[in-house]
Amino acid sequence: QKEVEQNSGPLSVPEGAIASLNCTYSDRGSQSFFWYRQYSGKSPELIMSIYSNGDKEDGRFTAQLNKASQYVSLLIRDSQPSDSATYLCAGSGGSTLGRLYFGRGTQLTVWP
Amino acid sequence: GAVVSQHPSRVICKSGTSVKIECRSLDFQATTMFWYRQFPKQSLMLMATSNEGSKATYEQGVEKDKFLINHASLTLSTLTVTSAHPEDSSFYICSARRSGGSNTEAFFGQGTRLTVV
């Protein structure tokens, strides 16, 4: 059973702070990991993908992957109220390319 | 970019009727599309994997006779909820993987909010 677990949240940070979102996964065979942002009533939007150990930075977002610990994280620097959303961690797995296993999501609120 | 269009965005139907949801990849070919369902404050649950030109693969517990999937072309998959009941009310989301290569990235449609009354 492939599982993706996220810290339960909700997470609340002040504007300008760093928000840290964490995720663990059970399938050592998973090679690709994704962070999606989902606003209420909307479809998930891909914000980061990471495939190899280490850090990957894109603007205010940094994804970190540690395959030995089966751990994925997302850091949001200089958090803005517009970052308030649910963040979904997903991992790939199985024989079907594109099939994703999602965590429950972490609700982030950035207050002004 | 890779755009996936899902239609309709919202639908209200009477109990016992059927509803069809379309998922189109607009600027790429998608051999594989995925259908998810999301209940309030829960994560996305995969219902089925749709493969162009072949039968869909359903996840455990999903009734294939109730949720009919057709993937007749490389750019279109449809999900038909047959004999809908109020408990089928949910947010249905499709995603599509670009054909070719080994990439695992999938792109999501806008989602369809189904309400069965």
Structural account:
- Chain A is mainly beta and 112 residues long.
- Helix content of chain A is 0%, strand content 54%.
- In chain B, 0% of the residues lie in helices and 51% in strands.
- Chain B contains no helices and 11 strands.
- In chain B, a hairpin with a 2-residue loop joins β7 (67-73) and β8.
- The termini of chain B are far apart.
- Classes of the chains: A mainly beta (112), B mainly beta (117).
Question: Quick one: which chains have the greatest interface?
Answer: A-B, 22 and 26 residues
Radius of gyration of chain B: 13 Å
Helix content of chain A: under 10%
Q: Tell me roughly what share of residues is in helical segments of chain B.
A: under 10%
What class would the helix/strand composition of chain A place it in?
A: mainly beta
Q: Tally the helices of chain B.
A: 0
| DSSP summary: helix tally of chain A | 0
Task: Give the N-terminus to C-terminus distance of chain A in angstroms.
Answer: 41 Å
How is this fold's topology laid out?
The complex is a heterodimer of chains A (112) and B (117).
Chain A: E1 4-6, E2 11-14, E3 19-25, E4 33-38, E5 45-50, E6 54-58, E7 61-66, E8 71-76, E9 85-92, E10 100-102, E11 106-111
Chain B: E1 4-7, E2 10-13, E3 19-25, E4 32-38, E5 45-51, E6 57-58, E7 67-73, E8 76-81, E9 90-97, E10 106-108, E11 112-116
Parallel strand pairs in B: 2-11
Antiparallel strand pairs in B: 1-3, 3-8, 4-5, 4-9, 5-6, 7-8, 9-10, 9-11
